[in-house]
């Protein structure tokens, strides 16, 4: 869907990066992360900034880019990116049909806005339907070509004094 609307692969990567989560990035680190030339990334960053979708701020001698959350289309683009990644449908199915899911977190690369091809999730709940979870994992891979890795805990680590490590 998104790739039929936006023809530039670099622009799609930037939209995924900035609108999947609240992320920021520098030109060189983005070029390295996407395995693209700095020139192609710079061109797309400039286009998105000129369109008002990204904000560029000075951080020393370098520019730091981030999504412009006050842009009128911010939420719509964020929703499109979420649908493109399939996360909205996956989360909805898990919460509605898995049993007693108290909370569901996206962790790992996707929590940092990196489309690595693996979606890592943490589910908090008891007596979850693991057969249905296996089914969803297989269907998600077939539909989105993304591997889903799920960890299950009975208690939320944030509520029992623990913490979640994103991107580890």
TrEMBL record:
Gene3D superfamilies: Winged helix-like DNA-binding domain superfamily/Winged helix DNA-binding domain. It comes from the Bacteria. This is Winged helix-turn-helix domain-containing protein.
């Amino acid at each position: 869907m998104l790739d039929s609307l936006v023809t530039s692969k670099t622009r799609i990567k930037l939209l995924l990066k900035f609108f999947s989560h609240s992320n920021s990035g520098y030109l060189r680190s983005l070029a390295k992360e996407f395995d693209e030339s700095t020139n192609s990334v710079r061109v797309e960053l400039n286009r998105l900034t000129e369109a008002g979708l990204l904000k560029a701020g000075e951080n020393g001698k370098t520019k730091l880019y981030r999504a412009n959350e006050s842009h009128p289309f911010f939420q719509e683009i964020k929703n499109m990116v979420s649908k493109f990644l399939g996360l909205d449908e996956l989360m909805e199915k898990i919460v509605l049909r898995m049993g007693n899911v108290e909370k569901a977190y996206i962790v790992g690369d996707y929590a940092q806005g990196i489309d690595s091809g693996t979606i890592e999730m943490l589910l908090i709940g008891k007596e979850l339907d693991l057969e249905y979870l296996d089914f969803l994992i297989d269907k998600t891979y077939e539909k989105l070509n993304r591997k889903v890795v799920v960890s299950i805990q009975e208690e939320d680590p944030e509520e029992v004094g623990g913490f979640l490590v994103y991107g580890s």
